[in-house]
Amino acid sequence: MERPIFKRVILKLSGEALAGQLGYGIDSEVMTSIALQVKEVVELNVEVAIVVGGGNIWRGIAGSEKGIDRATADYMGMLATVMNSLALQDALETIDVPTRVQTSITMQQVAEPYIRRRAIRHLEKGRVVIFAAGTGNPYFSTDTTAALRAAEIEAEVILMAKNRVDGVYSADPFKDPSAEKFETLTYMEVLNKNLGVMDSTASSLCMDNNIPLIVFSITESGNIKRVVLGEKIGTIVKGSV
């Protein structure tokens, strides 16, 4: 019998991962693939929470560079994450995975407000919980949201799914053929080497709360299940090696 090594996880998906080869918007085939991978994990009785980015629709920093007020641009980005979250919820429920979306910005006609104890109760009942709208505050990324929610719900690990790379490299492997892939890293190494795995706020929050991070590719079907079962794929980032 397959035995997962984690009981409760947070899956971090970038908005770009949902766009697939389209580069913008939502690729329905990619969304279905992700939903099926999540279902595999749920069927192992693993509690799954998800944080989705919004970069496939809108990026706050890019908007501010075009002259939009930074706080306003970030709020627009939060709304983009809600759109992605609703699409992912629909994909999951289409294949009979009960799912709840909780938003940091109140919009009760669309989703539940984020309430920590309610989120934990949903997880305990076997429902997937998708955390949308970031932290609800501008200037904070969805990476920081994943770190914050992981600490709040006492998740054992953050699974950072990438659509272009299969781990953390010393340089961009698409630009530098000599780039080295790391099997393990500490958060301090990530910060000191400026590896760009997560922003510094998220990395510091994970380090301070001893939350490990596994960076892996989501493009290969079944990878989320492999990580949950303890297979050594991707890169593990933790407090100390």
UniProtKB/TrEMBL annotation:
<feature type="binding site">
    <location>
        <position position="59"/>
    </location>
    <ligand>
        <name>ATP</name>
    </ligand>
</feature>
<feature type="binding site">
    <location>
        <position position="169"/>
    </location>
    <ligand>
        <name>ATP</name>
    </ligand>
</feature>
<dbReference type="GO" id="GO:0006225">
    <property type="term" value="P:UDP biosynthetic process"/>
</dbReference>
<comment type="pathway">
    <text>Pyrimidine metabolism; CTP biosynthesis via de novo pathway; UDP from UMP (UMPK route): step 1/1.</text>
</comment>
<feature type="region of interest" description="Involved in allosteric activation by GTP">
    <location>
        <begin position="20"/>
        <end position="25"/>
    </location>
</feature>
<dbReference type="GO" id="GO:0033862">
    <property type="term" value="F:UMP kinase activity"/>
</dbReference>
<comment type="function">
    <text>Catalyzes the reversible phosphorylation of UMP to UDP.</text>
</comment>
<feature type="binding site">
    <location>
        <position position="163"/>
    </location>
    <ligand>
        <name>ATP</name>
    </ligand>
</feature>
<dbReference type="InterPro" id="IPR036393">
    <property type="entry name" value="AceGlu_kinase-like_sf"/>
</dbReference>
<dbReference type="GO" id="GO:0044210">
    <property type="term" value="P:'de novo' CTP biosynthetic process"/>
</dbReference>
<keyword id="KW-0808">Transferase</keyword>
<dbReference type="GO" id="GO:0005737">
    <property type="term" value="C:cytoplasm"/>
</dbReference>
<keyword id="KW-0665">Pyrimidine biosynthesis</keyword>
<feature type="binding site">
    <location>
        <begin position="12"/>
        <end position="15"/>
    </location>
    <ligand>
        <name>ATP</name>
    </ligand>
</feature>
<keyword id="KW-0067">ATP-binding</keyword>
<dbReference type="InterPro" id="IPR001048">
    <property type="entry name" value="Asp/Glu/Uridylate_kinase"/>
</dbReference>
<keyword id="KW-0963">Cytoplasm</keyword>
<dbReference type="InterPro" id="IPR011817">
    <property type="entry name" value="Uridylate_kinase"/>
</dbReference>
<feature type="domain" description="Aspartate/glutamate/uridylate kinase">
    <location>
        <begin position="7"/>
        <end position="217"/>
    </location>
</feature>
<dbReference type="GO" id="GO:0005524">
    <property type="term" value="F:ATP binding"/>
</dbReference>
<dbReference type="Pfam" id="PF00696">
    <property type="entry name" value="AA_kinase"/>
</dbReference>
<feature type="binding site">
    <location>
        <position position="74"/>
    </location>
    <ligand>
        <name>UMP</name>
    </ligand>
</feature>
<dbReference type="InterPro" id="IPR015963">
    <property type="entry name" value="Uridylate_kinase_bac"/>
</dbReference>
<comment type="similarity">
    <text>Belongs to the UMP kinase family.</text>
</comment>
<feature type="binding site">
    <location>
        <position position="172"/>
    </location>
    <ligand>
        <name>ATP</name>
    </ligand>
</feature>
<feature type="binding site">
    <location>
        <position position="55"/>
    </location>
    <ligand>
        <name>ATP</name>
    </ligand>
</feature>
<feature type="binding site">
    <location>
        <begin position="135"/>
        <end position="142"/>
    </location>
    <ligand>
        <name>UMP</name>
    </ligand>
</feature>
<keyword id="KW-0021">Allosteric enzyme</keyword>
<keyword id="KW-0547">Nucleotide-binding</keyword>
<feature type="binding site">
    <location>
        <position position="54"/>
    </location>
    <ligand>
        <name>UMP</name>
    </ligand>
</feature>
<comment type="subunit">
    <text>Homohexamer.</text>
</comment>
<protein>
    <recommendedName>
        <fullName>Uridylate kinase</fullName>
        <ecNumber>2.7.4.22</ecNumber>
    </recommendedName>
</protein>
<keyword id="KW-0418">Kinase</keyword>
